[in-house]
Amino acid sequence: RMKKNKDKIKKEKIKKTRKKKKKKGKGQQQSKISSTATKKERSSPAKMAENLLIKMEHISDKGNNVDATPNIYSYYAVLDALAKSSGNGSDSTAGIRAEKILERMIKRGVEPTTRCYSRVLAAHVKSSSPRGEDRAWDLLERMIKRYNLKSTKEKLKEDETRNNNSRYYNNGNDNDFQLNTICFNTVLHAFAKKGNSEKAMEILARMDEIGKNNENAHPDEITFHSVLQALSLSKNPQKVIMARDVLRRIENSHISGDWAVIPSTRSYNMALNVCAASTNTNIAHGSENGLKNDQIRKEVVSIAFEIFENFRMSKYAQPDEYTYSTLLKICRQYIPRKQWKSKEEKSSSASPPPYLKQANDQRKELVEYVFSQCCDDGMLNDMLLKEFSMSVSPKLPRPIISSHLSPKDLTGRKGDQTIDLHES
Fold first, then answer.
1. Which alpha helices (H) appear in 180-264, and where do they start and end?
2. pTM for the full model?
3. Are 113 and 173 in contact (CB under 8 A)?
4. Residue 280 exposed, middle or buried by CB count within 10 Å (0-12, 13-18, 19+)
5. For residue 375, how many other CB atoms are within 10 A of its CB?
6. Using CA atoms, how far apart are residues 114 and 372, in angstroms rounded to an integer?
7. In Å, what is the CA distance from 333 to each residue of 65, 185, 279, 301?
8. How many CA atoms lie within 13 A of 222 on its CB side?
9. Cα separations (Å) of 340 from 327, 371, 394?
């Protein structure tokens, strides 16, 4: 009995010690989690910079240390940290916090420079907030108002000294504020990714207006590429014509002496991409308005091949593989073979309408023309060869292929007038 009692006592002690260890383990884990959380908060550069800036402002407000008063470099460092933190997409409030710091700067008499504004714009655009580009546009409009106010004051007070009590000239450093192309491109690129062509064209118009008196705000190559990107993603029915006008402006810009914009291969390819995207958004294949859709297709294809001809004649750019791939995509979507007949026509075995036959013949001619130009430029490869076969038929006229390919690449009988690309 004594032994049994001792064994029970030992077991109870062991159970108690185990329970104590478990409780300690949980407490240690909670303390570790809280410590890691605080470490993560402390390790965030943007939050550390913000907290340090707040301390500097408190010290300067109390008057304990005048040397600790934050200046333009202090605020810019914090704004730059917020812009970089929003670039990860995890911080959705970085742009709002950056704009609040901008307001505190103006209240404290530290006038923001162009670089400060650009970092706030970047924080808005790069943040994961759904209204980031709208907030950036609102800030850009305020920047335009400040620029207009500055220009009017400079015209009225060219020979006078600046008033120290003025809202915009408190520090006498407003010469550091100047609207430039980077500010506009930052906001424009944000709207381009969303396919907002209306806002993109509005920003371009603002740049043209301000660029008359400000050389630093002229549109550049990035500006026009962003506009073309917005057009390719938009659902504007006139986007093909608008893309052609933008490309013409790029082509004529360097002729008028603006060497900041020169037509490049990317410029032409992006304009062709707008035409390829238009065949998806603006044309309802198989609908009742077949003749109307056929007219739209002809207009899209004519503009696309007009761009292509100017592309080949350009001194600054040359077509590449993407060019011919996009042209084939336009030809392939110009008139789908599978939707020539409706269900009623298939049941009655009726032939396709005349305008569809003409469109099909025209597509074959265009594909053959693109094929010959692609071979002349030395851009033909296996991928493009497959796309050619998808554009018209697996069989292309043998004389066209034999004039550009070697006999080793040709398959089939000697008497055949066509070559099967799937078998080659």
1. 181-193, 197-211, 221-233, 239-253
2. 0.74
3. yes
4. exposed
5. 17
6. 52
7. 71, 33, 6, 10
8. 12
9. 21, 24, 18
pLDDT tens for each residue of 171-225: 434 557 888 999 999 999 999 999 999 999 999 999 999 988 888 898 999 999 9
The backbone region for 121, taken as left when phi is positive above 0, alpha when psi lies in -120 to 50, beta otherwise, is: alpha
Could you tell me the two tokens for 81? Answer: 């940290």
Token pair for 212: 């008359």
Continuous H helices in 64-160: 72-86, 94-107, 114-126, 132-156
- Amino acid present at 11: K
Block residue for tokens 């020539």: 340
* Assigned token pair, 286: 């198989």
Looking from the CA of 337 toward its CB, the CA atoms found within 13 Å total 12
Sign of the torsion angle spanned by Cα atoms 67, 68, 69, 70: positive
* Residue-wise pLDDT tens digits, 107-141: 998 989 999 999 999 999 988 888 889 999 999 99
If residue 328 lies in a helix (H) or strand (E), which one and from where to where? helix 321-334
The separation between the first and the last C-alpha atoms of the chain, rounded to the nearest angstrom, is 96
